[in-house]
Amino acid sequence: MNGKRVATETFSIHQSSTGSSITSRFKTEAGPDRAEQSSELQLTANGELKSYEWKEISPGQSQATVLPSQDFLSERYTSGAGDKPKEQPFLLPLSTNILDDYFFIQREILAWKYLATSCKHEKSGVNCPLKEKAQLGTLNAHARASALVNLQFSGREKVSLHGAEHELIRLDLKTESGDWVLWLDDQLKLQRIVDSADTTEVVRD
């Protein structure tokens, strides 16, 4: 943020014929208010939600689990150690995307779903309709709130990463809480994210 490294996210993605598993751990840099959180997202082979778990490791011990409940979603959560679990239903389909606070790898999963449903995959690369918005449903388990977001393909751009110039795919993500620009390489790996105010930058190491 503002040119200073403030946090690191470490993640892994495993895909198989039966689905995908995405795990992530987010840590802020050393300081008086150091925070650490973890998440695990399980998806079916067609991208629907199997389960999502979020845990606050420090400074608190909040946690939440999102599971299918018949054709919709239900979140079970606690605000701290020893708290009695509470449950909140969401009239959201199983195709809803998890877009939680702090876990930027979930933006990559969202981008993949957009590219899979709105674009053509040709030998020359991804071919998407230019400036055509796609609306996707999301759930923020940490805030226990759902929202619609817009994603659109904005062409290819030359971007400087780690001292070298790369031509990347640009996607524009518009949400209720703010707008982000996402850049992916030709292997569809998310390389850089910048917020609309240009104060927060996320870069793949």
List the helices and strands and how they pair.
Layout: E1 7-16, E2 19-28, E3 36-44, E4 49-58, E5 63-69, E6 72-78, E7 86-90, E8 97-98, H1 105-118, E9 120-122, E10 125-127, E11 134-140, E12 145-161, E13 164-175, E14 178-184, E15 190-195, E16 201-203
Parallel strand pairs: 8-11
Antiparallel strand pairs: 1-2, 2-3, 3-4, 4-5, 5-6, 6-7, 9-10, 11-12, 12-13, 13-14, 14-15, 15-16
What does this structure look like?
It is built from one helix and 16 strands. It is globular. A hairpin with a 4-residue loop joins strand 3 (36-44) and strand 4. The chain has one helix spanning 105-118, and strands spanning 7-16, 19-28, 36-44, 49-58, 63-69, 72-78, 86-90, 97-98, 120-122, 125-127, 134-140, 145-161, 164-175, 178-184, 190-195, 201-203.
Structural class: mainly beta
Task: Report the sheet-strand fraction.
Answer: over 45%
Shape: globular
**What is the percent of helical residues?**
under 10%
